[in-house]
Amino acid sequence: MTFTMPPLTDDDLTCLSASFEDQPAESVVAWAVDCFGDRLCVTTSMTDGVLVDLATRVKPGIEVVFIDTGLHFEETLETAETVRRRYPIELHVSRVDEPRVPFHLSDPVNCCSAAKVAALDRALAGKLAWMSGLRRDDAPSRADAPIVSRDARGLVKVNPLATWTDGDVADYVARHDVPVNPLVAEGYLSIGCRPCTRPTLEGAGTRSGRWDGVRTECGLHLD
Question: Which CATH superfamily is domain 10-182 in?
Answer without folding.
Answer: HUPs (3.40.50.620)
